[in-house]
Amino acid sequence: MENQYQLYEHKAQYYETDQMGIIHHSNYIRWFEEARTDLMDQIGFGYDQMEKRGIIVPVLSVNCEYKSMVRYNDHVYIIPKIEVFNGIRLQISYRVIDKQTNELRAVGESKHCFLSGTNRPVSLKKIDPELFELFDRYTGKDFDSLEQ
Question: Catalytic amino acids?
Fold first, then answer.
């Protein structure tokens, strides 16, 4: 897996801009979700597979700190990192990096929990050890420093 990970790239779209010609702040949260979904697919267990097993992963909180502007047609990498995972909760950080200049555009994080199909908190370690081990294996990994 480690040599296969591809950074998530996003091309800023015109509809994402605001009246000032820069990317509207709300879009970064969407980009975080896109990168998180891509990361989960790449590590081998996407949302669709979890939901088939009766597990849902709602967002508890999300934040973003803007460092510099992204404009229409810019290409950026959104780099997620699993920071905290204990089988019940999950915290992912994000860095938005300009593809051309490597300038940091934004940082953020999202916090999640794992729920059953009946919206009850669950421990992956107890109900799905395979999934627990998968998330645990990637906690703390810096995906941007891996070979492309």
Answer: 18
